[in-house]
Write a structure and sequence with these properties.
Number of strands: 7
Oligomer: single chain
Helix content: 25-40%
Number of helices: 3
Strand content: 25-35%
Structural class: alpha+beta
Shape: elongated
Largest sheet: 7 strands, mixed
Distance between the termini: 26 Å
């Protein structure tokens, strides 16, 4: 079996994933402040007002953080994965056909970076992206090949 051809794609600035993160941040803010307001015994009207303000603040803060994150370039060079020039391994966490959530772990790093990617707008043909992400280099058994692997546990 031949390895996937080289491909370069942009990721990390998908609008759909950004809105999802904003909604989760807003919901978390609402729940936390609502619980604190109940524990403090605040009047119902003041409690609702504080909770709504926290939700809006969560949305705005997460929006600013998402906008400040630079666009990333994920590259398959035919042998290994690179994220902005840094080598590592890619794992597909979610694949919904046209949208994917990838986990990139740089070699020698304990942390991972989550990369949402919209295959319609990533700048590379969809078939090349899918071939590289699913097939990796074709030889995923070699140590340090950097090939994409499917991992049910993320």
């Amino acid at each position: 079996m031949h390895g996937a051809p080289p491909v370069q794609m942009t990721c990390g600035r998908d609008g759909r994933s950004r809105r999802s993160v904003q909604a989760v941040a807003a919901a978390a803010s609402v729940v936390a402040v609502g619980w604190l307001a109940m524990q403090a015994g605040l009047e119902a009207g003041l409690s609702v007002l504080c909770t709504l303000a926290a939700g809006m603040a969560g949305w705005v803060v997460s929006s600013r953080l998402a906008a400040s994150r630079p666009e990333a370039w994920l590259t398959w060079d035919g042998l290994s994965w690179l994220l902005d020039g840094q080598p590592g391994d890619v794992v597909i966490a979610i694949d919904t056909d046209r949208w994917m959530l990838l986990r990139f772990r740089a070699h020698g790093s304990l942390g991972a970076r989550w990369l949402p990617i919209d295959l319609n707008t990533c700048g590379a043909p969809i078939y090349l992206c899918r071939a590289a992400l699913h097939a990796g280099a074709g030889d995923s058994g070699s140590a340090g090949s950097g090939a994409a692997t499917l991992d049910a546990n993320g």
